[in-house]
From TrEMBL:
Lineage: Eukaryota, Viridiplantae, Streptophyta, Embryophyta, Tracheophyta
Keyword Secreted belongs to the record: yes
Descriptive protein name: Aldehyde oxidase GLOX
Keywords linked to the UniProt accession: Oxidoreductase, Secreted, Signal
GO cellular component: extracellular space
Top-rank lineage group of the source organism: Eukaryota
GO molecular function, one term: oxidoreductase activity
Cited Gene3D superfamilies: Galactose oxidase/kelch, beta-propeller, Immunoglobulins
Length: 538
C-alpha cells in the first residue's frame, strides 16, 4: 500500500519541506536593503569617493534618463543621435550619509570607458564612444554639500581612442591605460614621451568575438603588471615593454569581455612578496557570436600564485555558473562574488537567468570549501551593473541595463534602484565585536610606523588587523585598481576604557599600495569597523 502510506505521510513531508525551505532562507548569511528607489540613471560605472559619496555614471547618448540636470544646464550636441538638446543627467552623485542624489553633468560619451583615482583623490576617467573616444575627464570630489562636477580636460587627450580599456594606478602615481577595442596598446596619464606602446600579447589574445577587452590588470607587489586577456595571462614590465613571464592558459574558455568573467587579486600581506590572482566564471566560447542568451555560463574559478615559481592554476567550482559577476574585496580579505546571470553572454539583451545568490570566497579555507552561498537578492543585476565596497563595510549594488536605451516594461528592465548588501560580519549578533576607530592619522608615508586606537564593546582576544582597501572604478564586472593591503601590526594593547592601541607600519612602497586615499578598516575577529580614509603618500 505505498500510495496510502504516502498520503498519510504527505502532511508531514510538506512540513519537512517547508521547514527546509524556511531554514535555507533564514540561515543564509547576509542581508539586503534598498538605499535609493530611483537614482535617476542606471550606473554602468561606479566609484566611491573619500567624501563618502558615490559617483554613478552611465553614457550620454542614451536619451532621457529619469533625472534632470540643474535648471538651465542642458547639453547641446548636434551629433547626438537621440537628444540634440539634452537636459537629463547621465551621471549623479550619491551622498551615503543621506542617500540623496545630485545630478552631475558629463559632456562626452562615457560608454564602455575606464577610470581610476589619482594620488590626490581626483577621479580620472578616460575614453568612451564617439565624441568620448579620446577624451580624458576628471572629477575632483568635494564635501557632500559642495557643487563639484565633471571637467573635460582640453589640454590632453588619449593618443589611441579607447573603449573597453582598463586603467591601473602605478607606484609613481601615474595611470596606465591598457588595451581597448582595436587598441592593442598601452598609454599613460600623464602621457609619457613614448606615446602609445603596442603590446603584442593583447593582439594575440584577440579572437573572432574579441575576448581581449577590459583586460584584468593587477599591479603586483614586484612592480610588474599581471594582465589577463581571453584565457591567458602575462607578467608585464611596463617600463621596458617586456613580457617577463607567460602563465599557462586557464581552462574553461575566455573570461574577459564579452565572455564576462571577473577577477580579483587577493589581499597582500606578510612580507608582501606574494600575490595570488583569482579569475571566476564566464560564458561559453561562441555564445557571443551566436547571440545565444541561454547557453549556460560556467562556474569554474582559477587561482594562481602570480609571483611564485609554480605557474599552475588551481581550479575550483562555484555553486552556480555565472557571467557578469562582480568580485568585491571585503575588508576581511574574503571576496564577494555578486550580480550577473547564469546563461548567455555580455552585451545588449544577451543574457538570461539572473544569478541572485552572492557567494563568499574565503581564500584561507581549503580548496573545494572556499565558496559559501549567501542570501539571494531580488533584483536582477544583468549587463551594465556594478558592485563597490562602502566605507561602512556594506557593498553598494547599482545599475543593470541590458538595453540600448532606457526600457522599463520588459524582462530585465533598466534598473534605477540602488541596493546595499550587508555581509554577515554586520549582523547584530556580531555587533559586540565591531571596532570603532577612535584615532588614526589622516596621512601616512611609505614605511612609516603609526598607531591606530580602537574601542570595542567586548574585550579583544587576539589581534585586531588594520587593512587598507582602495576605492576602485567598477565597470563591466571588473573593479579597476581594486586592492586590499593588510598592514603589519603589533599585538593589540589595552589602552584603558575599552580602548586598544594597534601599532601599524604603512605599506613599504607604491608597488604594494600606489599613492592615494584608502579606506582603513580595523578588523576584529572578522568584523570590520567603519573605515576612515587615510592618505598614503611618498
Ligand atoms: C589632482 O591632480 C590632477 C592631475 O594632476 C589635477 O588635474 C587635479 O586638479 C588635482 N586635484 C586637486 C584637488 O588638486
Ligand atoms: C559644507 O560642509 C562642510 C563640512 O561639513 C562645512 O564646513 C561647510 O561650511 C559646508 N558648506 C556649505 C556651503 O554649507
Amino acid at each position: 500500500m505505498p500510495s496510502l502510506h504516502f498520503l498519510q505521510c504527505l502532511p508531514f513531508l510538506i512540513l519537512v519541506i517547508l521547514h527546509f525551505i524556511f531554514l535555507a532562507r533564514a540561515q543564509l548569511p547576509g542581508t539586503w536593503e534598498i538605499l535609493v528607489e530611483n537614482a535617476g540613471i542606471a550606473s554602468m560605472h561606479t566609484a566611491v569617493t573619500r567624501f563618502n559619496t558615490v559617483v554613478l555614471l552611465d553614457r550620454t547618448n542614451i536619451g532621457p534618463s529619469r533625472k534632470l540636470l540643474r535648471k538651465g544646464h542642458c547639453r547641446s550636441d548636434r551629433n547626438d543621435a537621440v537628444l540634440k538638446h539634452d537636459c537629463y543627467a547621465h551621471s549623479v552623485l550619491l551622498d551615503l550619509a543621506t542617500n540623496q542624489i545630485r545630478p552631475l553633468m558629463i559632456l562626452t560619451d562615457t560608454w564602455c570607458s575606464s577610470g581610476q583615482f589619482l594620488p590626490n583623490g581626483t577621479l580620472l576617467q578616460t575614453g568612451g564612444d564617439l565624441d568620448g573616444f579620446n577624451k580624458i575627464r576628471k572629477f575632483d570630489p568635494c564635501e557632500p554639500n559642495g557643487s563639484c562636477d565633471w571637467v573635460e580636460l582640453d589640454d590632453v587627450a588619449l593618443i589611441d581612442g579607447r573603449w573597453y580599456a582598463t586603467n591601473q594606478i602605478l607606484p609613481d602615481g601615474s595611470v596606465i591605460i591598457v588595451g581597448g577595442r582595436a587598441a592593442n596598446t598601452v598609454e599613460y596619464f600623464p602621457p609619457r614621451k613614448n606615446g602609445a606602446v603596442s603590446i603584442p600579447f593583447l593582439a594575440e589574445a584577440e579572437d573572432n568575438q574579441m575576448d581581449n577587452l577590459y583586460p584584468y590588470v593587477h599591479l603586483l607587489p614586484n612592480g610588474h603588471l599581471f594582465i589577463f586577456a581571453n584565457d591567458r595571462a602575462v607578467m608585464y614590465d611596463y617600463d621596458s615593454n617586456k613580457v617577463m613571464m607567460k602563465y599557462p592558459p586557464l581552462d574553461g574558455g575566455p573570461r574577459n569581455y564579452p565572455s564576462a568573467g571577473s577577477s580579483a587579486m587577493l589581499a597582500l600581506e606578510g612580507d608582501y612578496s606574494t600575490a595570488v590572482i583569482v579569475v571566476c566564471g564566464g560564458a561559453k566560447y561562441g555564445a557571443f557570436i551566436e547571440r545565444s542568451t541561454d547557453t549556460p555560463a560556467h562556474g569554474s574559478c582559477g587561482r594562481i600564485v602570480a609571483t611564485g615559481p609554480d605557474r599552475v592554476w588551481e581550479m575550483e567550482d562555484m555553486a552556480f555558473g555565472r557571467i557578469m559577476g562582480d568580485m568585491v574585496m571585503l575588508p576581511t580579505g574574503d571576496v564577494l562574488v555578486i550580480n550577473g546571470a547564469q546563461a548567455g553572454t555580455q552585451g545588449f539583451e544577451l543574457a538570461s537567468a539572473p544569478c541572485l545568490y552572492p557567494l563568499l570566497y574565503r581564500p584561507d579555507q581549503p580548496g573545494g570549501l572556499r565558496f559559501m552561498t549567501l542570501t539571494p537578492g531580488t533584483v536582477p543585476r544583468m549587463y551594465h551593473s556594478t558592485a563597490n565596497l562602502l566605507p561602512d563595510g556594506r557593498v553598494l549594488v547599482a545599475g543593470s541595463n541590458p538595453h540600448v536605451f532606457y526600457k522599463f516594461e520588459v524582462e530585465f528592465p533598466t534598473e534605477l534602484r540602488v541596493e546595499a548588501f550587508s555581509p554577515e560580519y554586520l549582523s547584530p549578533d556580531r555587533a559586540n565585536l565591531r571596532p570603532v576607530i577612535e584615532g588614526i592619522p589622516e596621512t601616512v608615508r611609505y614605511g612609516e610606523a603609526f598607531d591606530v586606537v580602537v574601542s570595542v564593546p567586548l574585550p579583544v582576544v587576539g589581534i585586531v588587523e588594520v587593512n587598507l582597501g582602495s576605492a576602485p572604478f567598477a565597470t563591466h564586472s571588473f573593479s579597476q585598481g581594486q586592492r586590499l593591503v593588510k598592514l603589519a601590526v603589533t599585538p593589540t594593547a589595552p589602552a584603558g576604557d575599552g580602548r586598544y592601541k594597534i601599532s601599524c607600519t604603512a605599506p613599504p612602497s607604491g608597488r604594494v599600495a600606489p599613492p592615494g586615499y584608502y579606506m582603513a578598516f580595523a578588523v576584529n575577529q572578522g568584523v570590520p569597523s567603519v573605515a576612515r580614509w587615510i592618505h598614503l603618500v611618498s
